[in-house]
Every structure is written in C-alpha cells, then in structure tokens.
C-alpha cells in the first residue's frame, strides 16, 4: 500500500485565481490558525527530545538538523541563530541542507534524492553517539533525510524527525518521531506554507527549551547573547543595570568590554 501524504492532498479551497486579494489572505490566515493546534499535539514528543538532548549537550554533544528545500533552510536558519542569541559555539547546533549552501538561495530539488549524502556530510563533523540527529522533512519521505537517519541508528546515534504526515518512512527510522499533521495546504502541495510554519515553530521550541535548560537564559533574559550591535549593546547594558543597580556608563563599559551580559556579571563575582 502506497504511503499517503496528507500534505499533498487537495486544498479545501478552489478557483483561487477568482478570489479577491482579501479573500485569498483570509483563506491563508484561516489555514495558518490550524498550525499551532497541530504542533500542540506533538508537545509530548518534543519534550522527550529536549529531555534527551539536554544532558548530552552538557557533556559536549551537538544537535544536527538535516533537510532538503524549505525544511533544510529552516534547519540552517535555526542553527545559525544560536551563536548570536545564546553565545554558543557555531558547532553546537549544525544545519545541513541537501545540495549545500547553494541550496539556501536556489532550489536544487534533485539533491534530496541521494540516500548516502546526508550520512557522508555528518561524518565530516565526526558525528558520535553523544550527538542527536534530527531529520526535518514535511513529507516524511525525503531520501536524503531517511538515508542519514537510518545510518545514524545503525551506528548508535540517537535520531528524531519532524514531519507533517503521520506514520511516514522518516518516522520509522527515528527514535522520536515528531509529527505535526497540518493537513492540506491552501495551495495544494505547497508545504512551505503550513507545514513550513509548523516545522519552524518546532525548531524554535527545541532549541529555546534546550538553551534554557543548559543555563543560557537567566530569569527570562538572553544573558549570553552576543552584544554585536548598538541595539543589543543597549539591551545588555539595561540588563546589567537591572541586575546590579550600577550607573549607566559603567554598565555600558562592561557590556563593551565583555561582549555579553553573562560574562560581564561573572566578572563582578
């Protein structure tokens, strides 16, 4: 029996070309409202993944995201925001996309069909059982992702997947399968829409929760963010003032000297 992709089924809307601009936008928005509920149903699996990652990351483990097309770009995006936001090394969360960096700006859809490439790329990073490899695939069928996850499991590396179809091939080779079933897209098969939004939300949830649990947030503030722009320097200065009560000029000088609120506060201990 062929695997049925809910993400590819017919849209609930038709004759889109005859709709007014407002009707199109209302329809898209109505579909987008369903995304958060689909993600909510997957919270138990997301929580299990975070609980697995945290102790491993404290011991030097990493997160790897693998995907193709929109899914790959979302993984790379999430990974790229971890160093400036939380002051973590760029190697702590790594995003890999089928087709490499060129695929970030230009569609290279054929790259997703190589079942061996993902594993080859992971080996360049010396992936180990301390790491966690997360496959991101809206369809749940991407060969680049499924092949890499299968090889990871065979080598004792913990795997997870994020997909938008139930019981997919990618889920079958994952230790934890996160499935946000968002249903048909407004434009049939355009998974950069609801499915992409769901994947982005889940990636945000994973890394944010992990960073909090490994101590990169204090209270509700990003004390380890890199103070690399005037906006962030000002924000960091205000954080130091709130924590210490010191004068503005002194707090700003500490921000500029240490480059993060955490490091500045540590210097005062």
TrEMBL record:
Q: Which GO terms describe its biological process?
A: amino sugar catabolic process; peptidoglycan turnover
Q: Which Gene3D superfamilies match?
A: Glucose-6-phosphate isomerase like protein, domain 1 (3.40.50.10490)
**Active site per the UniProt annotation:** 81, 112
**Keywords, comma-separated and alphabetical:** Carbohydrate metabolism, Lyase
Pathway(s) of this molecule:
Amino-sugar metabolism; N-acetylmuramate degradation
Q: Name one GO molecular function term.
A: carbohydrate derivative binding
Task: Please verify whether the record's keywords include Lyase.
Answer: yes
Q: What is its EC number?
A: 4.2.1.126
**Enzymatic reactions:** N-acetyl-D-muramate 6-phosphate + H2O = N-acetyl-D-glucosamine 6-phosphate + (R)-lactate
Q: What class of enzyme is it?
A: lyase
> Does this entry carry the keyword Chloroplast?
no
Q: Which residues form the SIS domain?
A: 53-216
Something else known: A lyase-type mechanism (elimination/hydration) is suggested for the cleavage of the lactyl ether bond of MurNAc 6-phosphate, with the formation of an alpha,beta-unsaturated aldehyde intermediate with (E)-stereochemistry, followed by the syn addition of water to give product.
Q: Which family does it belong to?
A: Belongs to the GCKR-like family. MurNAc-6-P etherase subfamily.
Q: Which PANTHER family match?
A: GLUCOKINASE REGULATORY PROTEIN (PTHR10088:SF4)
Q: How does it assemble?
A: Homodimer.
Described function: Specifically catalyzes the cleavage of the D-lactyl ether substituent of MurNAc 6-phosphate, producing GlcNAc 6-phosphate and D-lactate.
Name the record gives this protein: N-acetylmuramic acid 6-phosphate etherase
Q: Which gene name does the record give?
A: murQ
